[in-house]
Amino acid sequence: MKRQDYISWDEYFMGIAHLAGMRSKDPNTQVGACIVSDDNKILSMGYNGFPRGCSDDEFPWEREGDVLDTKYAFVTHSELNAILNYRGGTLEGSKLYVSLFPCNECAKAIIQAGIKTIVYDSDKYADTPTTLASKKMLKAAGVDFYQYKKTGRKITLDM
User: Fold this and answer.
1) Phi, psi of 35 (to 5 degrees)
2) Which residue of the set 11, 58, 64, 79 is catalytic?
3) pLDDT average per 10 residues of sequence, the chain (159 residues)
4) pLDDT value for 96
């Protein structure tokens, strides 16, 4: 008889998204994303950080101040990184697992890439204008999204 305590696809891919987020050097917010095909194959991953060639020691990580003194003008979000990291052709019909609900800018890229489903963990900015705009665009474009249902399962890795 096969074992019954294996993790679900949602647990697996959300775990990978969170693990990818652990690569982020952002001192405040670590976000990870994992894009999968309709037959549950990993297509791409990403995390929030500076673009290739932009040193994370030379660009700001600040959240407050003049826009050029903060991370916001420079950081690439995990969803966009995952989309840009994909080298296999089209993402049409794929599913995105992400640890934080996508902002409006990432929603545009998700829609344009043809991603059809978003599974997100946190929605801590649900009432902000950028998240409300994101949800409006995603709904209009027919992109389904739902919040990951935590199982309470503890998964640990010994490295």
Assistant:
1) -105, 130
2) 79
3) 91 96 96 97 98 95 96 97 95 98 98 98 97 98 97 83
4) 98
Give the SS3 label for residue 147. strand
User: For residue 39, what are its two tokens?
Assistant: 């037959």
Please identify which residue in the block is written with the tokens 């059809």: 116
DSSP assignments along 17-54, one per residue: HHHHHTT---SS---EEEEE-TTS-EEEEEESBPPTTS
58 catalytically annotated: no
Helix, strand, coil: what percent of the chain each, to 5?
30, 20, 50
Q: Cite the DSSP H helix spans in the chain.
A: 9-21, 78-85, 104-113, 129-140
Residue appearing with tokens 């679900």: 8
